[in-house]
Amino acid sequence: MTLRTKLLGTVFAASTAGFVFASPASAATICFAFQDLETEFWVAGHQAITTTLAEAGHTVIERNANEDANRQLEQVRDCVAQGVDGIIIIPQDGESAVTIVNEAQDNDVPIAVFNRPPSDLSKGIIVVADNATIAAQAVDFVAQEAIAANPDETLQPLIIVGDLGDPNAVGRRDGFYEAINRYPDNFAEPIEVASEWDAATALANLEAAITANPDIDLLFTSSDFLFPTIRSVLEPRGMWVPRGEDGHIMMAGLDGDATACQLIKDGYVDATGVQDLYFEAESAMNAILAAIEAGDAQPNDVIEDPGFALTAGNIGEREMDMWGCVLLSQGFLDQ
Q: Which of 81, 109, 224, 328 could be disulfide-bonded to 257 (CB atoms 3.0-4.6 Å)?
């Protein structure tokens, strides 16, 4: 039974019966250090990892750095001092991740980095989505749809950019431009809106951008968690319009959360790039437990999640392949 199947049964706390992953002969103590739980992806990933490890008999020491890279480093040092068997981290950014991976391996503690990769991939277990490819798939769908609807017009795209200190944000921005640049005769120079992965920052900057440039034809957010922010800007201006109606802005995001799934169903969003949370969480747990079992204190492996794009065109076939749609079906947004 895979982690995906487990979470189909309940939102998070499913039985581990039949779920096979690499487990040491004796129970391990794992330090799980995360930067925050602001988005649905981080909440779901945190719950999947902690629940599965605990139900398999392992001890999980949790540390929340509240978006403070220095605090996270100190928390990891504390875990090392406690003699943990292994560490799983969600780092604040790519540079701090390098420091933390080095700290762990210098003290002979194996470490796995979940989803947000260090800028140096030569050390540690790194589980990461192919952000550029996933973003390009989602953006290409909405680009083609926008061109089909307005074949003789020059269209105005807008991208909400993440924190470019995070390699995930860089990859998503690169994927957006890769897709838009395939159609140089159809799109004007994109408008960039900085978010720094902060909803308040995104709100202020998007309001300014839309006020200055109200004729937006395509919008890509580098993370689905900003869709409520986007709605709060567009709806009062009469720009939050469902698919098939005049004034609809082609919209895409990336993550694959429950909000994005609902908005695709409702017609307001047209596509989202999906990170396979189940694959990534399972891969991180398998790899760290295998390293502990093997006595490998300095493992190095990059495990890539190829992801996919869920769109208005394929949601009928691929809905339950997206972690957010699974959670949506279990009433996650009603909690």
A: 224
